[in-house]
Design goal:
The complex is a heterodimer of chains A (about 775) and B (about 160).
Chain A (H helix, E strand, L loop, with lengths): L1 H17 L1 H4 L3 H24 L6 E8 L4 E7 L1 H24 L3 H23 L3 H19 L6 H32 L4 H6 L5 H17 L8 H4 L5 H10 L3 H17 L3 H20 L5 H22 L2 H32 L15 H14 L6 H14 L3 H29 L19 H19 L2 H14 L15 H18 L1 H11 L5 H23 L4 H23 L12 H19 L3 H21 L3 H22 L12 H27 L6 H13 L4 H9 L1 H30 L9
Antiparallel strand pairs in A: 1-2
Chain B lengths: L4 H24 L7 H27 L4 H21 L9 E6 L3 E6 L1 H23 L20
Antiparallel strand pairs in B: 1-2
Classes of the chains: A mainly alpha (about 775), B mainly alpha (about 160).
Chain lengths: ~775, ~160
C-alpha cells in the first residue's frame, strides 16, 4: 500500500508532465489525483497508526536479498505526520497553482514535477532502508533543481538552481558515505534496527558526522544556508512547498529520527547540533530583519525556523522531541500560508517588495486576515498554533539543566527576533506606509479571486483551529513523538496555567514588539554582520577555487606534448612494477638463450632494427624500421609455433606501416627538432627503464606460476563447448567473448573520436566556422 | 604526391586478392588460423594501400556505404549475437553450431560465432574508413611540410 502511494505520485507527476501540452491547466487535476488518494489513505490508516502503542504499517519489496537490498517502507506516527504535511500541502499547492500560473501548460508541468518531488519526499519519510532513503533524498535534490530552474530563461534562476544542487548534492554525497559506514557498523541497512541498537564505535561517530553534514545542507543550516534564499527565484508555489514546508524539513526529519538514539551515545552530538541550530536560528532571524523583498524575508525566516527545529530535535530528549513535532507542524501551516499570500500579492500587484507595494484596499480583506493570522502564529501570539507549539518548546527546556537553560536563552533571543520580523512582514503587507514611504495615489491592485486565496485560507483556518482546540492534534503529535522516542509525550495547551514558560512567551512578545519599534539599531547590526560571511560569498569562493584548481591541474597534466604523456605513463607503469617486484618476486633465473638457434637469429634481427630505428634521421626510415621490428616478431611467433598470433601480428604491422605512411605525408621528411642533451638523457632513461621492465617482467611473470594454467582448460573445452578447433578464435568469440564485445566498443569509440578530433583540428587550421559536414 | 605506375599496378593485383583473403580468414577462423579481427585487419590494410595510392575519394568510391553505417552494423552484429541467446534462455554469448550436407559443397559447418566475428570484421574495417575520412582531407597531395616544431607528435 505504501509503495502504491509513493508510485502513484511519481506516475501522476509524469502523466501531468506528458499531458501538459494537451490538457494544459487540467494537467493539475491529473497530478492532484495522487495527493488526494494519499490523504484518503492517511485518513483510513490514521486510526490504526494513532492507536495506543503506535502500530506501524510496513510494505516490502525484496530485490537482492543476499546483499541486504530490499525496498522497505514503514509508516509510524511521525511518518504519518510527514505524509500528511507533504500530501495535504501538496494538494493545496496544486489548487493554488491554477490561479498562480497564467500559462496553463507551465502550470501542469510544474504540478507534475511537484508530484514527482512529492513521491521522492514520501520515499524519504517512509523509508526504513538507509539506501532507499538516500535515493529518495537525492531525487528531492534533483527535482528541486528542476523546480528552482522553472524560469530557465532567467540566468538568476539557473544560477540559483545550480547553487541549490551543488550544496545539497555535496551534502548528499557525504551522507551516502555516512550511510554506508553506518550500515557496515550496524550490520544492517534497516533504520529501525539501527535505532533500536545503535552501534557505538568511532567509525559510527564519523558516519553520524557525515550524515549530519547531509542533513545540515538540506535543511539550510549555517554555513550551508545560502542556497535557500537564492532558491526564491522559483515561482512561489514551489517555494511554498519545497523550500518552506517539505523538502527543507528532510534534514530535520533525519535529525529527529537519529537524535533519540545517538544524542546519548555520541558525546559531541548535542553540543554540535544544538550550536549549529542556535546559530542558524539567530543569524537567520537577524538576516530576516533586513530585506524589503517579502519573499526573501520569508526565506531567511525559514532558515531561522529550521535552526529552531534542529535545536529542538537535536537535543534528543523526549520532551524537546515532542515539542519539535508540534513546532514542525505549526511551521508548515503558517509558513506555507505566508508564502501563498506573498505569491498572491506578487501576482496581483506585480511586486513583492515593500518599497514598491501599494496599499491593498477593496477586496483584500481575506488575504490580509490570512497574512496577519499566519504572521501572528509565526510570532507565537496566542491563540494560534504557533503559540501552542512554542509554549511546549519553552516548557520542555525550562525545567532542565544549566545547559538547557543556556539553549533556552538562545531560543528566546531568536524568538524575539522572530517576533520582530513577523511584525515587519505583517505591517509591510497590511500597512506598508508604516515602514516605508508609500505613494498614496497608487491604486489598489485588483483583488484576487476567491479560489486563488482559498488554499491559504484553509491553512490559516487550521492555524486558528489548532490554536483554539489543541486537543485535535495533541494525540497525533503525541504518537509521532512516541514513534521517535518511546518516553516522549506531547502536552499541547492554549492555557498552560501561570508557568514560567508562559512568562517567557509574554516576555518574548513584549521585547519583540519593542525591537520592531526601535528596529534601526538591529538593522545596523545586521548590516555590520553581513560582510563577515554571507553564505553566497563562501559558496562562490569555493566554486571559484575548485574551477581554478581544475584549470591549473589541467595545464600541468594535459600540456599537449605526446612525449611527456608517454613518458609519464610508461615510467609509472614500469618503475612502480619494478619496485613491487624487487620487494617480493621470486626470480626464476635467466632462460636458456642458446637453446634455439633460429630464435636467436630472429631476436638479433629485432634488436638490430629497433636500435636502427632510434638513430634514423628520416621519419620514413624510422617507420619502416619499426615495421621491420614487428615483422620479425611475427617470424618469432612462427618459429615458436603460434601461427594465429603471427598472422595477426603481420596484419597489424602492415596496417601500422600503411597508416604511418598516410600520416607521414603531412609531416616533414626528417626529424628537424633534435632534443637537447638533457631531453635526450631523459628519453634514453625512460626507454631503458621500460625495456628493462618488459624484459625482467616477462621472465619473472612467466616463472612465477603457481596454479595450473587456465589455458589448459580452454584447449579442452574449445571444440565441445565453442564448436571450433582454433582455440585462439574460440577464446575471442566465446570463452572471453564479453571482453571482445568491450574491445569492439572501444574500437568504435576510437573511430568516432578520430573523426571528431580530425574535424575539430581541421576547422581550427582553416579557421573555417562552417562545419565540413559528412563526407 | 605523384601517382606511381608501379605502385598502382601492383596494388590492382594485390587488392582483390587481399580482400578475398580477408573474407577467407574471417570464415576459416573458427577452425584454422584467422578470425574476424585478422580478416578485418587484412581488409583494412588493403583499403589503406588504396588510400595511399588514390586518396580518400578512391577508397570511398569503392564502398556504397558510409563508414558510420558499417560501424553501426558491425557493433550491432557484435552486441546482437551476444544478446540474442538471452532471449532463448541461453547464457550471454552462447554459441550454436549447425551442419548440413549440401550438393557440390559437401559437408558445411556453421557456428553462430561467425556472425560475431563478422561484426568484429566490420568494426575493424570501418575504423580504418573513419581514419581515412578523418585524415584524408580535401588536399590529397600535401603541398609543403607543416610547421617544423611539430615533430614531437610522433617522435
Amino acid at each position: 500500500m505504501l509503495w502504491l502511494i509513493v508510485m502513484l505520485h511519481v506516475v501522476a507527476g509524469f502523466a501531468a508532465l506528458a499531458s501538459a501540452r494537451s490538457l494544459r491547466r487540467w494537467g493539475l487535476a491529473v497530478a492532484a489525483v495522487a495527493p488526494l488518494s494519499a490523504l484518503v489513505w492517511a485518513a483510513t490508516a490514521a486510526p490504526r497508526l494513532l492507536a495506543d502503542g503506535g502500530e506501524t504499517v510496513t510494505s516490502r519489496f525484496s530485490w537482492a536479498t543476499s546483499l541486504g537490498l530490499e525496498a522497505v517502507l514503514r509508516a509510524d506516527g511521525f511518518s504519518l505526520i510527514m505524509v500528511l504535511v507533504v500530501t495535504g500541502i501538496g494538494a493545496l499547492i496544486l489548487a493554488y497553482s491554477t490561479g498562480y500560473f497564467s500559462d496553463g501548460a507551465k502550470a501542469a508541468r510544474v504540478g507534475g514535477l511537484l508530484m514527482i518531488f512529492a513521491g521522492a519526499m514520501l520515499c524519504v519519510v517512509l523509508s526504513d532502508h538507509l539506501l532507499l532513503l538516500y535515493v529518495g533524498w537525492e531525487l528531492t535534490s534533483i527535482t528541486s533543481f528542476f523546480l528552482i530552474g522553472t524560469d530557465h530563461e532567467n540566468p538568476k534562476a539557473r544560477k540559483a538552481a545550480v547553487h541549490a544542487l551543488m550544496v545539497t548534492g555535496a551534502g548528499g554525497l557525504a551522507m551516502l558515505a555516512g550511510f554506508v559506514l553506518l550500515g557496515q557498523q550496524a550490520g544492517t541497512w534497516r533504520l529501525g534496527e539501527i535505532l533500536a541498537a545503535p552501534p557505538t564505535s568511532v567509525a559510527t561517530s564519523v558516519a553520524i558526522g557525515l550524515i549530519l553534514l547531509g542533513a545540515f545542507t538540506k535543511s539550510a543550516q549555517y554555513p550551508f544556508h545560502s542556497w535557500l534564499p537564492d532558491a526564491m527565484a522559483a515561482p512561489t508555489p514551489i517555494s511554498a512547498y519545497l523550500h518552506s514546508a517539505t523538502m527543507v524539513k528532510a534534514g530535520v526529519y533525519l535529525i529527529a529520527r537519529l537524535a533519540p538514539a545517538f544524542a546519548v551515545t555520541i558525546g559531541w552530538w548535542r553540543p554540535v547540533v544544538v550550536t549549529v541550530g542556535l546559530v542558524t536560528m539567530v543569524a537567520g532571524a537577524l538576516r530576516a530583519s533586513r530585506p524589503t523583498d517579502l519573499k526573501r524575508l520569508l526565506a531567511f525566516g525559514t532558515v531561522s525556523q529550521l535552526g529552531f527545529l534542529v535545536v529542538l530535535f537535536g537535543i534528543g530528549r523526549p520532551e524537546a522531541t515532542a515539542a519539535g513535532v508540534a513546532v514542525l507542524v505549526g511551521h508548515a501551516l503558517f509558513k506555507a500560508a505566508l508564502f501563498l499570500v506573498v505569491g498572491i500579492v506578487d501576482h496581483q500587484a506585480g511586486t513583492r517588495d515593500v518599497t514598491d507595494l501599494p496599499r491593498l484596499g477593496e477586496g483584500w480583506g481575506v488575504t490580509k486576515t490570512v497574512a496577519v493570522i499566519s504572521a501572528a502564529s509565526m510570532a507565537a501570539v496566542p491563540p494560534f498554533a504557533g503559540f501552542v507549539a512554542k509554549e511546549s518548546a519553552y516548557a520542555a527546556l525550562v525545567d532542565g539543566s544549566t545547559g538547557d537553560r543556556v539553549v533556552l536563552a538562545g531560543i528566546v533571543f531568536g524568538s524575539i527576533l522572530t517576533v520582530a520580523y513577523s511584525l515587519r512582514l505583517a505591517v509591510g503587507l497590511v500597512r506598508p506606509d508604516a515602514i516605508v514611504a508609500v505613494d498614496q495615489r497608487q491604486a489598489s491592485p485588483p483583488a484576487p479571486a476567491w479560489s486563488f486565496v482559498a488554499p491559504a485560507v484553509v491553512l490559516a483556518s487550521l492555524t486558528v483551529l489548532f490554536g483554539l482546540v489543541p486537543q485535535i492534534w495533541e494525540s497525533a503529535v503525541d504518537v509521532a513523538a512516541i514513534a521517535l522516542d518511546a518516553q516522549a509525550h506531547a502536552h499541547l495547551a492554549l492555557w498552560p496555567g501561570l508557568t514560567e514558560a508562559l512568562g517567557l512567551s509574554l516576555l518574548t512578545l513584549a521585547v519583540g514588539i519593542g525591537v520592531f519599534a526601535v528596529r534601526r539599531p538591529i538593522e545596523a547590526v545586521a548590516v555590520r554582520w553581513a560582510p563577515v560571511a554571507t553564505g553566497v560569498e563562501i559558496y562562490n569562493g569555493v566554486v571559484d577555487a575548485v574551477l581554478s584548481a581544475a584549470a591549473r591541474t589541467t595545464r600541468i597534466v594535459q600540456n599537449g606534448s605526446l612525449a611527456t604523456y608517454a613518458a609519464v605513463v610508461l615510467t609509472t607503469a614500469s618503475v612502480s612494477t619494478l619496485v613491487a617486484m624487487a620487494r617480493g618476486a621470486s626470480w626464476p633465473g635467466w632462460p636458456a638463450v642458446g637453446a634455439d638457434p633460429t630464435s636467436v637469429v630472429v631476436s638479433s634481427l629485432i634488436v638490430a632494427a629497433a636500435v636502427a630505428a632510434t638513430v634514423a634521421r628520416r621519419r620514413f626510415a624510422a617507420a619502416i624500421l619499426l615495421g621491420a621490428v614487428g615483422y620479425a616478431m611475427a617470424l618469432l611467433f612462427v618459429v615458436r609455433g603460434a601461427p594465429d598470433l603471427a598472422l595477426t601480428q603481420v596484419a597489424v604491422e602492415t596496417l601500422f606501416v600503411v597508416v604511418f605512411l598516410v600520416v607521414l605525408r603531412r609531416l616533414p621528411d626528417r626529424f628537424e627538432h633534435r632534443p637537447s642533451p638533457v631531453g635526450k638523457t631523459v628519453r634514453i632513461a625512460v626507454s631503458v627503464s621500460v625495456g628493462a621492465f618488459v624484459m625482467i617482467g616477462s621472465i619473472a611473470f612467466a616463472g612465477s606460476r603457481t596454479e595450473r594454467p587456465v589455458s589448459d582448460q580452454m584447449v579442452e573445452q574449445a571444440l565441445p563447448e565453442g564448436y571450433g578447433r582454433n582455440v585462439v578464435n574460440v577464446i575471442l568469440v566465446d570463452i572471453r567473448g564479453l571482453d571482445t564485445v568491450g574491445e569492439a566498443t572501444v574500437l568504435a569509440t576510437a573511430a568516432v573520436g578520430i573523426v571528431a578530433l580530425a574535424r575539430a583540428g581541421r576547422r581550427r587550421e582553416h579557421d573555417d566556422p562552417t562545419p565540413t559536414g559528412d563526407r | 604526391m605523384r601517382r606511381s605506375l608501379i605502385f598502382d599496378t601492383t596494388l590492382r593485383l594485390v587488392f582483390d586478392a587481399a580482400v578475398v583473403l580477408s573474407v577467407y580468414l574471417l570464415f576459416a577462423g573458427h577452425n584454422q588460423p584467422g578470425g574476424g579481427f585478422v580478416g578485418g585487419l587484412v581488409a583494412a590494410a588493403a583499403l589503406a594501400l588504396r588510400f595511399v595510392a588514390g586518396g580518400a575519394e578512391d577508397v570511398q568510391s569503392l564502398l556504397p556505404w558510409s563508414p558510420w553505417g558499417l560501424l553501426s552494423v558491425g557493433l550491432m552484429l557484435v552486441t546482437g549475437s551476444a544478446l540474442v541467446p538471452l532471449a532463448f534462455g541461453h547464457p550471454l554469448l552462447d554459441q550454436q553450431a549447425y551442419s548440413w550436407t549440401l550438393p557440390l559443397l559437401g559437408d558445411v559447418h556453421a557456428a553462430t560465432a561467425t556472425l560475431f566475428d563478422a561484426g568484429i570484421y566490420l568494426v575493424v574495417v570501418s575504423l580504418l574508413l573513419m581514419v581515412v575520412a578523418g585524415l584524408g582531407d580535401e588536399h590529397p597531395v600535401d603541398p609543403a611540410p607543416l610547421d617544423a616544431g611539430d615533430d614531437r607528435r610522433v617522435s
